[in-house]
Amino acid sequence: MPAMSSIPHLNLVVAAAVILLLIFVPFLRRLVFALLRIAIAVVAAFVAVAGISMLMNNETIYEKPGAKVRIIRFMTVDNAATSEKGLGTATCKWPDEPGASSAPVPGAAAQPESAETEDVYPELMTRSFPGISRQKLFDLSQQVVNSLGGWKIVKSDPHAGVLECIYTSRILGAEDDVRITVTPKGDIELCSRSGTERKGSTSLLGVFPGDFGANIGHIKQFYETLEPKMDEVYKEEQEKENAKKPHGGP
Does pLDDT of 129 surpass 50? Predict the structure, then answer.
C-alpha cells in the first residue's frame, strides 16, 4: 500500500519537473510547441482530406446507421457490397481471392436483429426490378456505367449477367474495382473494393485501411443513375399494357 500511495506523488513530481524544464529551457519549450503545431496541422489536414473525400464520394456521416458507425467504417473498411437488408457486414468474394468461385454472390453473416438495426446502410440495399428481363437490366447497367465519369467496363459477361468495372478517381488516380451482377429474378447486386485489396497490390495507399466512403459511394452513384432509367422503362411498359387494352365506345 505505501508503494501504491506514492505513485500520485511521483506523478506530481514528474509533471512539475516537466513544467520547470519548459519554463527555464527555451530550446525545449520551442521544440515542444513546434511538435504540437505540426501535430495540429497534420490532424487538420487529415480531417480536411477526409471531408473533401466524402463529399467527392457523395457520402455523408449523417445518415443511418449514424455518424459514429459511419466514421469508423469509412476509416477502417475499404470495400462494400449490397444485400437484401443493406447490412454493412455484407461481403463478396473476388475472382483473385482465395476460395472465390467464378461467380461470387454478395451476402452477410447472420446477426441478432438488434445488431442488424445498427448496421443498415440505405445505399447498400439491393435494388430489385421485377417484370423486366434480365437482358434488359444488363443492357441498362452497361449504359449507366458508360455514362458515368471515371468508370470503365473491363469485362462483360451477358450469360452470367456480370459486369466488371474499374473506377479511377479524378484527383489521385486511385483505382477501385466494381462488380455488377444482374440475377435471374431481377436483382442488381454490386460489390466494390479499393484497388489496394487486389492480390499483389503495391500501392502506398494500402497503408490506410479505410476508403473515406468511396466504395459505398460508387454503389450509391450507380443506383442513383440507374433508377431514373428504370422509371422510364416501367413507364414504357405501362403504356404498352394500356395500348393493348380495348378502348370502350362513347
Answer: yes
